[in-house]
């Protein structure tokens, strides 16, 4: 009995000693479904890395952005791993706020990351964040309504075709809008759509010398086309509609076409929630024959702040959560359709995933069509497809979004909205020291 008690005592002491030596890392993440699922699957990580304990801080998107931005800018050191977007990565990397990810492991296969996604998360050829899931945007359309209109959607449509199809598909008497597009103001709402769209019209936010370009004819063509299209064929109250509102309209059968995030495909094709699930087709975002399509690029990614004292443990976790192994783990527990999309070429070559996700091929093509390092027809001094990777863009993008949403609502003219956007951008860039 004494021997057993002594043995248990030694074991307890050993366990306490081990716990004392275990390294604890804190992970700040967004409260979306994919990230919540990841937390439930972390036993797989801790079994392989028993010397690393994981602490989670799970936040709503806007709160997450505010907290991690404040922490990294002030070198607060609260987090060892941060969930950030494609917008933040190049800005923070250039500020030396992030560590390069160069110890992800021999079997990680960095080259398997889709080039367009990797490009948006890299600076000077170094990866500064590992993508957890990625997306672009494309056309989702009603095949039955397209056929009724006597048209066939090309795999790579033009904006003129979209206008022609929208005109023929609009059926106000039966509550069908030819096209649904974002109108709600915000740098991540209507300006994500309109900036990507403007790229295909040859527009740009700034020229090579950071001079705002809203007074140029390419922006006039973009905004006028958008406003005219939405007035003729869009839903009532479109200036209040963002991603979620348009998703609901499409699922209810009230949109002939919807141009938005590729991640929406799994929702519109889900028979549990979509009344048109068996009628949806997919096509690349439209273009105007200028070499750029109107699609964006985004990834939620894991990055390591330069201030952490636990970089090795943090990078082990980042490697696990964004690996091929993790994709296989999710597939084994939840099915291939629930694997985080848009990050690895190998996923899109997997026959099981192709079978589970009929939109997979078009999603990959849409992602590959976006180039964050050369987002526009004419040269620009910035990176980012549907945003400009400078700190001032969050505020400026939302201001311009409010002006353009007002033009859509008929509260101002297209010309007035563009003039005010030019003035606001000029003031912001002058104050920021970009122009004199």
Write the topology of this structure:
Layout: H1 2-21, E1 23-30, H2 33-40, H3 43-48, E2 52-59, H4 61-73, E3 81-85, H5 88-94, H6 115-120, E4 122-123, E5 126-127, E6 130-135, E7 137-142, H7 143-148, H8 159-169, E8 177-180, H9 190-200, H10 217-233, H11 243-251, E9 255-261, H12 265-268, E10 280-284, E11 298-303, H13 311-321, H14 324-334, H15 345-348, H16 351-356, H17 360-368, H18 393-408, H19 414-431
Parallel strand pairs: 1-2, 1-3, 8-9
Antiparallel strand pairs: 3-11, 4-5, 6-11, 7-9, 7-10
Helix pairs in contact: 18-19
Mean pLDDT, rounded to whole units?
92
- Give the DSSP E fraction (strand runs of 2 or more residues): 5-15%
CATH topology of the largest domain: D-Maltodextrin-Binding Protein, domain 2
Q: How would you sum up the global shape?
A: globular
Give the helix tally. 19
